[in-house]
Write a structure and sequence with these properties.
By secondary structure, the protein is of the alpha+beta class. It contains four helices and eight strands; from the N terminus they run H-E-H-E-E-E-E-H-E-E-E-H. The strands form two sheets. The chain has a five-stranded antiparallel β-sheet with strand order 1-2-3-4-5, with helices on both faces. Helix 1 packs antiparallel against helix 4. The protein is globular, with a radius of gyration of 14 Å.
């Protein structure tokens, strides 16, 4: 099984309200995410968290084959809007829930105030992804 297949399996295990994976990502949400986050169209979006109250997905987080990319609303500040897999792994122990945000450490925050996905579910998802990448490094897969 490739690393991409392992990641997709992990994402599917965490799929819940407000978080879509693979072919389950609604086209309108994906189009808005690509237009607003912005996501390089050459990247493969594997999972999508909508962080808007009205469901437009103009704010949220995309899980791509290269890492995480997000866009917050005007009320949330974050000096970063993306993390590569190596950055996520390096900051794994800094990931925490702070009020309405998932804080990745080093002033990298995802505002989940409008998301129907619970912050706890997102927290476990990001830790699971970091763990998967750590295991891949350890085993050399």
């Amino acid at each position: 099984m490739t690393e991409l297949q392992i990641l997709l399996n992990l994402l599917e295990q965490h799929q819940t309200d407000g978080f879509w994976v693979g072919s389950n990502i609604p086209k309108r949400k994906l189009d808005n995410a690509i237009a607003h986050f912005p996501i390089d169209p050459r990247l493969n979006v594997l999972g999508l968290i909508d962080c808007t109250v009205m469901g437009s997905c103009k704010n949220g987080l995309a899980i791509t084959n290269q890492g995480l990319i997000w866009k917050n609303d005007w009320a949330s500040t974050s000096s970063k809007t993306s993390l590569s897999w190596s950055e996520l792994l390096a900051q794994k122990n800094d990931i925490r829930i702070v009020k309405y945000d998932i804080d990745f450490g080093k002033n990298a925050k995802l505002s989940m105030a409008g998301s129907s996905m619970s912050k706890t579910d997102a927290f476990h998802l990001f830790h699971g992804i970091a763990e998967m990448h750590q295991n891949a490094i350890v085993t050399g897969k």
